[in-house]
Amino acid sequence: MDWDDVRMFLAVARTGQILAASKRLGVNHATLSRRVTTLEERLKTRLLVRRTNGCELTAEGEIFLHAAERMETEMLRAQASLGHLDSTIAGTVRIGAPDGFGVSFLAPRLGQLIQRHPELRIQLVPVPRSFSLSQREADIAITLERPEQGRLVSSKLTDYTLGLYASRHYLHTHGAPSDIDALKTHPRIGYVEDLIFTASLNFSSSVMRSWDASFEISTAIGQTEAVRSGAGIGILHDYIARHYPELIRILPEVSIQRAYWTTYHESARDLVRVRTVVDFLQELVGAERHIFL
Q: Residue-wise over 62-98: b if at least 16 C-beta within 10 A, else e?
């Protein structure tokens, strides 16, 4: 069995498209399709159902995917032990992050990493939902919880806090609630409930039993902008709200604590470029930890 054929199959399985996989690998899509067909012929089974809008794994393809990922992990380890893997810090590293952390904190600071390592390319993908590291939708994920399943390597990045905020204009017009009960008479801003994909995002339950937002927005940055506009009171990340003098912290006794974790697939453990980015993220957050708490 040719490892290159397996590598090409992995790319198609992870992207779900032969064209997208060919672009990622830098090979002609017809060549890629032919190599996957050759692999299927050698295995004497069909791995993919090819459609005009993409590819879907067959049951046999699902089984082979797990075997191929184990092969990939061992290949990376072997190359690293022989000194043939990632001898320089170069290549592409994709970071998936919640929109608040990705846009507000990482985007203005990741340029420092590029200055240190000019051959490194960083892709920052702010995502409001969970996504797959095993399918390489990202090399590193900033997660809101420590994953408990899968072959993943995780470490805590930082704890962070959230609080209740309103705009200065809103408070001038409507006044500030004196307690949680009084908060019920004010319009509230929160997440779109059926899009909350993890319990860690359910901040409102830490404040009151039924938040019942009149304005629901599925991103932290969107909620911040809505509160800034005077649309109501919201639960905002303290490290984001601190940038806006027009935002006033109300009911300061209400403080919610959560955490960010860095997570990557164990097959990337030996990739110098991935370890370099993970170490930089820890360094970056460590130097400014005071803004998160």
A: eebbeebbebbbeebeeebeeeeebeebeeebbbbbb
From first to last of the 293 residues of the chain, give the pLDDT tens digit.
Answer: 788 889 899 888 888 888 888 887 888 889 999 999 999 999 999 999 998 888 889 999 989 988 887 787 777 666 666 655 555 577 788 899 998 999 999 999 999 999 988 888 899 987 755 555 555 578 899 988 887 777 788 999 999 999 999 999 999 999 999 999 999 999 999 988 776 666 666 677 778 788 888 899 988 999 999 999 999 999 999 999 999 999 999 999 999 999 999 998 887 777 788 889 999 999 999 999 999 98
Q: How many domains does the structure of the chain reveal?
A: 3
Q: Domain check: are 117 and 195 in the same one? A: no
| Full residue range of the structural domain in which residue 172 is found | 159-258
Whether 171 and 144 map to the same domain: the answer is: no
The answer as to whether 24 is a domain residue is: yes
